[in-house]
Description:
The protein has 185 residues and is of the alpha+beta class. It has helices at residues 23-56, 67-70, 82-101, 178-184; strands at 5-10, 13-18, 117-123, 130-132, 135-138, 142-145, 155-164, 169-176. β5 (135-138) and β6 form a beta hairpin. α1 (23-56) packs across α3 (82-101). The longest helix is centred in the first third of the chain and has 34 residues, at 23-56. It is elongated, with a radius of gyration of 19 Å. It starts with a strand and ends with a helix. The model is unreliable at 1-18 (pLDDT under 50).
Amino acid sequence: MEATSYYIEKQGKECCFAEGAQVSQQEYFVKTFGCVRFVYNKMLEERIRLYEDSKLNPHTKQKLPTPAKYKPEFPFLKEVDSLSLANAQMDLNKAYHNFFRDQSVGFPKFKSKHNDRASYTTNNLKGSIRIEDRKVKLPKIDFVKLTQHRPFDGVIKSATVSMTKTRKFFISILVDQAAIDSSQE
């Protein structure tokens, strides 16, 4: 098994973590990447259909799709972190907003399985992401071993797990240092 690297972003600075994830954790990461891509593409497909329908009848109210809509039809979506699916919805909404703000940005594109990098982002709710005893806790996956090269102070906001084509995994953790800085003043 190849060594896996992890790093933490700290206001533009990186702290490196390097150690191996278990095979089951790697499989979970890959499954989550696929589910996030699947939900994004399904929602984009439906948004395109709704957009075309609105051209025919502009006064029709439309309800935008959510990741929860697809869970009864595709039960494998229940196996991954729901916040990662919600972040895929937020990414699509941002892509749509950017397109209608400035069309030179281009219409949102379907996500491909063959991209250079697969990734998903999850949010920290009530300590669902934390670092303890040289391990990082992620939702639905438990603790992943790490080596912390540089400590940080702040509140963990989110974590983005990504994978390169060579199956190297990275975890980027967004830390809010303003919460710590303002409490010390």
